[in-house]
Design a protein that fits this description.
Length: 135
């Protein structure tokens, strides 16, 4: 599944891979898409984020986008969710920075609507009980 939004001369995209009931979302865009941050969450577990170092030793700030999307979709999640985020616009303007939050909000809204319209009815995994062992 793929969602996108364009404002101020750049596009931000959310590519979703469904793995059972779990989601992997890659938020990318701009001139140099990358993996700047990884954010994990479930419906009932708070978000956790890892921020990777950028080229100059500072840490990427793309978790701002992932967190915006995550907060919107969290109540609708069928399982776990991992969001990678990496949007880079060369010589970004203040206006482009300002609309990035709105763009992430838009992506979150699109994904939330899609989640509510889809059934993630997959078979539950089967585990051994405490009294059973593999044969």
């Amino acid at each position: 599944m793929k969602f996108s939004v364009t404002k101020e001369n750049y596009t931000m995209t959310a590519d979703i891979t469904i793995i059972g009931k779990d989601l992997f979302i890659a938020i990318t865009g701009g001139d140099n898409p990358h993996i700047g941050t990884i954010t994990t969450l479930t419906k009932n577990i708070d978000m956790q984020t890892i921020r990777y170092p950028s080229h100059d030793g500072r840490f990427h700030k793309d978790d701002v986008l992932a967190t915006r999307v995550g907060k919107i979709i969290q109540p609708c999640l069928p399982g776990s969710c991992t969001i990678s985020a990496g949007v880079h616009i060369n010589h970004i303007s203040k206006k482009q920075i300002m609309v990035s939050s709105q763009m992430a909000q838009n992506l979150g809204d699109q994904i939330s609507t899609w989640l509510q319209q889809n059934d993630f009815d997959v078979p539950e995994p089967i585990y051994y009980s405490n009294s059973e062992n593999p044969q």
